[in-house]
Amino acid sequence: MPSAPDLILDLLVADGGMLTVQALCRAGALFRIGESAIRVGLTRLSGEDKIRRCGRGCYAFNRLGPQLSGTVDDWQHKATQAVPWNLDWLAVHDVGVLRSEKTAWRQHSLAMSLRGFVAFQPGLRIRPNNLSGGLTVERIQLQALGLSPQALMFRLVDLDEERRNAAWSLWDVRSLEARYRLLQTGIEKSRRELDVKKLEVAVRESLLLGRAVIGDLIRDPLLPTQLMSATTRIALVKATTIYQRKARALWRQWLTAP
Prior knowledge:
By secondary structure, the protein is of the alpha+beta class.
């Protein structure tokens, strides 16, 4: 189940416009989230610059806010970051990052996960260097997401054959492709059934399923075609975009219903 802040962000991102506190509280009730929790969530998100006030009792998503919020908002266009791969790697050495500072470590680890870095050796995480802007831009992206200042980031080249083969096999491509096909099947089935369900049930289901699928797409490592075909990801993004369009229309219908 989403928390109050998660629900608020989901609705404001999907809506693309502004919603009233009354509408957000009504949506919260669908997920057994009380009005007080919604109002606290609004205060917190506003203080973090993730949302902005648009007049008395109205809020909208702040697209100029923190990097993580922008990452969530831009899942449909994530693939545009990919560029041809020259078989080199981006690496983060984080042995010096204190695991005892739990909040900072969680942020650091989340940044790594969102940008597709995986463990290669103890204290060393890598990903293919196939993202636009290379090392310079990726360092900025990771720092904005919470990369620890104690981490060392660099480009990794000229691996020996054994380590090169190990690096190429870090991602379970078959499982990832199978999961994307399963998610696509599920979201297409749900889309066909939304119209025959009660509106209250349909909007609740569409939010829960949509946020689960988008969560996978946000964490997609954007592997180069030498490691993984983009076919299943492209198909899932297309199906999810269509689903979100349908879900957005149902939510607007439900939120404006008397």
